[in-house]
Amino acid sequence: MPGAAGRRAGCRAIPVKALKLEEEHSVSVNPREAFILELQDFLMEITQKDGVCGYESGIAAVIESAFSPFVDSARKDNLGNLIFFKRGKREDAPRVLLAAHMDEIGLIITRVEEGGFLRFTSLGGFDVRVLPGQEVTVYGSETVHGVVGFKPPHLIREEKKGKVVKMEELFIDTGLPEKELRDVVLPGAIAALKRDFITLQHRCRAGKAMDDRAGVAVLWQCIRELHNIHHEANVYLVATVQEEVGVRGAVVAAFGLSPDVGIAVDVCHGDIPGAQEHEVSSLGKGPAITSGPNIHPRIAERLLATASDYNLPYQKDFSPGPTGTDARAIQVSLEGIPTGLLSVPLRYMHTTVELVDMDDIKAAGRLLAYFVTGLDSDFMETLKCS
């Protein structure tokens, strides 16, 4: 990282597991590498912590602990959004909202069946094709581990073989007898899919809940950058709730904070075989900056210009309508808020092996920080005449 000498003031010590990772690959830990290793370790920590839509308190505690050393205050609103405030150098400076959702898609139990099986439906948009064979954690009066089961192909009628499985044909098997299961799990209990953080080649990492814990990691990278940079703007970093079930947290946060500018940070589809070029962004080539009617044109232009000025990698993205992100809610809050969208390319969205490149997260965090430092009264005036 240009200008970064030694470990930055206020940063946590490099975790032992991160150091071990470097030792395994025989790479020396220089200051630049240490900074991204801390980012990787933070991403690992928050993706392995459960926080299903509407039940984000556990993951919120982890995020609050990591952000607190770099901000002036932290609080929760009535819906559960986690709001951090970093004071700028001028009280009358622009108020900027940086939002990334911390909730993840999950399951909710609908009934306990004879024999000790749990039926369920989804909280958020799960692709049912990926559910059979997954390991889950069920949060009843006690925490119970289980697996998602399905009738094996040997027992399926010939006319149904090869067809896509339906949600109602799946069940969770905990191994508990029906009577014992009913004592600890009732309809309405939630379940989260379980997956260890996966280290792949180069800077690629995979796991569950990268959508949108990768965005939360971008905010963490941003606030670490801002920790040592002069900025006039007053910055609100918000880990929003319930994005996956209707961008509800962003609605409340934007209304409550009344920012002058809002930037949503989320993920977009990464490049995969068979996808059309205009539908995806490449991993490892920087975050995607969106243009379209959901985005204020001056915000998109400034993000693009900032990336160019600081020689940061970036890609262009286009959305013809409301994006499926917190930007959709921020833009139409109050009397309208100038809004931008910055996205981390991600493969295999809404699975337990969502895959990102750490360099994209790092670049997105730096871009956000430099964007914030450039917010002044002259730029704010341009937002009124788009």
- Category from helices, strands and their pairing: alpha+beta
What is the annotated CATH architecture of the largest domain?
3-Layer(aba) Sandwich
The average pLDDT score comes to 90
How many β-strand stretches? Answer: 17
Give the CATH class of the largest domain: Alpha Beta
Distance between the termini: 34 Å
| Portion in strands | 15-25%
Total number of helical segments? 10
Give the strand order of the largest sheet, numbering strands 1, 2, ... along the chain.
1-2-12-3-13-16-14-15
Identify low-pLDDT runs: 1-27
**CATH fold annotation of the largest domain:** Aminopeptidase
Order of secondary-structure elements: HHHEEEEEEEEHEEEHEHEEHEHEEHH
What characteristic shape results from the CA principal axes? Answer: globular
For the CA atoms, what is the radius of gyration? 22 Å
Write the CATH homologous superfamily of the largest domain.
Zn peptidases
Largest beta-sheet characterization = 8 strands, mixed
Helix percent reads 25-40%
Overall tally of domains: 2
Could you explain the architecture of this structure?
The chain has 386 residues and is an alpha+beta fold. It folds into two domains: 232 residues, 3-Layer(aba) Sandwich (Aminopeptidase), CATH 3.40.630.10; 88 residues, Peptidase M42, domain 2 (Elongation Factor Tu (Ef-tu), domain 3). The chain is 29% helix and 24% strand. It contains ten helices and 17 strands. An eight-stranded mixed β-sheet has the order 1-2-12-3-13-16-14-15, sandwiched between helices. A hairpin with a 3-residue loop joins strand 6 and strand 7. Helix 2 runs antiparallel to helix 5 and helix 5 packs across helix 9. The longest helix is centred in the N-terminal third of the chain and has 17 residues. The N terminus is likely disordered.
